[in-house]
Amino acid sequence: MTAVLNHDELRTRTLAILDRLGVRDPFTDGGELISRSPITGGELGWITAHTPAQVGELVERASAAFEQWRLVPAPVRGQLVRELGNLLREHKTDLGALVSIEAGKIISEGLGEVQEMIDICDLGIGLSRQLYGQTIATERPGHRMMEQWHPLGVVGLISAFNFPVAVWSWNTALAVVCGDPVIWKPSEKTLLTALACQALMAEAARRVGAPEAVSQLALGRAEVGQALVSDPRVALVSATGSVRMGKTVAPIVAGRLGRLLLELGGNNAAIVAPSAELDLTVRGIVFSAAGTAGQRCTSLRRLIVHSSIADELVARLKKAYASLPIGSPLQEGTLVGPLIDGTAYEGFTKALATAQGEGGELIVGGERVLADEASDAFYVQPAIVRMPAQSDIVKAETFAPILYVLTYDTFDEAIALQNGVTQGLSSSVFTQSIREAEEFLSPAGSDCGIANVNIGPSGAEIGGAFGGEKETGGGRESGSDSWKAYLRRSTNTVNYSTELPLAQGVEFV
Ligand code: NAD
Questions:
Q1: Which of ligand 1's atoms lies nearest the C-alpha of 186?
Q2: Within a domain: 135
Q3: For residue 4, what pLDDT is reported?
Q4: 3-class secondary structure, 34
Q5: Domain check: are 339 and 374 in the same one?
Q6: 243 shares a domain with 347
Q7: How far is the CA of 222 from the centre of ligand 1 (A)?
Q8: FRET partner for 454 with CA separation of 20 to 30 A, picked from 136, 271, 364, 504?
Q9: What value does the mean pLDDT take over residues 427-447?
Q10: Does the keyword section mention S-adenosyl-L-methionine (predicted)?
Q11: Which range of residues forms the domain containing residue 103?
Q12: pTM for the full model?
């Protein structure tokens, strides 16, 4: 375990990073929002929140920017994303460190998150020359039918604490290329990274002459989010967070028939078959379950192991978990950083108690480490619990490093266990059997938005569409054709003949 930094040193370092990223004087005495680092649990400063009325003003400005931005040719809009990508490359080290300071991710994952932003900018630049529609065969002579994709309008973006910068960039890089201004309400737990992204985006907009209001921040808690999603001028609400949040936001947007893209909680599983290559499997499991201290939406939470290899696999995992370096995420070599806050720690301890009450056997972990009881920094030893077949706690997403182990005898039983939860984000199978691998990927296999073979459920890359089914919300972001969410489709029929034939042979003379 590695020592945790002194809080004053951390604060000084944070302010210097912010300054280099273009964020000056972020703190205001009397601000309503507190900025903390989970590394020390200490307060960094107070930040002023927007009022719901101010959110209306942001929407007003974004709507005016839309009128202008939607008419700029898409390849020219792409230059904004190119500039953002250049700035991100230049500031990768600082922004990556800031992600670690604010979200508690180890430095390599903080940098990885910024790399993901750079990757989506690259994708956005290419996309800016590829917003293509189709031409479609028409039954009428002398006619042409085609579809075009046009800018949609203002995008209201809500994001979670655990991907404090990537989720913004997944949405923003595509939205602005598609001609849509974005108003971002970041998590109230990660305000500094939001201020830094906004400063970089403002600089990019200045350099290419884009309207300032193409990207704006709405800072605050749930009520600020509510004001944003309730506004009928917000054409698309893209919301990332818990299922609980999604269930509040969805009826509001549906009530005004707005467009919604939801990226909600997961409860991700890995099936381990008897033929699995165990060295690779153990590495895949430990990264997915204990990495990011179990605070990824795609973190591995349920391990479904064939009963013939369960004892051996659990013994290997126990050994790997016992030597995991836990500590300051800024320290080289640390693999597990802190939980985000005391509420997350409470969720961790309660879930472990419930699991044991349901007959679970704690194999390893579960203790609080490094800081004393009075501290507001919450470091824990990632836990593995072997569970009986019937248990309820395994069906809930606890946003902390707890891996439940379940066993199976037939592959059908394994798939039924994997699919037997309300969430449907990510899933994986470790097997050398092509039959099992293909079955897992078939319509009768995993019901998740992401299904992997011989890789854990976490760690997606930009080129694929990201998102999940069932209570995860059905949204898709990032690659493939996810860009279509930020555009409206216009179907056009052009008659270049001198006749007026009607479709379906209808006569009207
Ligand atoms: P959260 O739901 O507590 O908060 C997410 C965001 O929603 C925050 O910005 C919050 O202020 C806002 N919010 C909360 N209630 C709201 C309301 N009533 N109206 C409008 N906005 C509201 O989630 P969190 O603790 O920050 O993040 C963890 C959760 O997010 C986990 O469930 C995780 O699985 C999920 N998540 C999902 C994805 C994905 O892509 N599927 C990605 C990251 C995180």
A1: 9
A2: yes
A3: 59
A4: strand
A5: yes
A6: no
A7: 10
A8: 364
A9: 98
A10: no
A11: 53-264+473-489
A12: 0.97
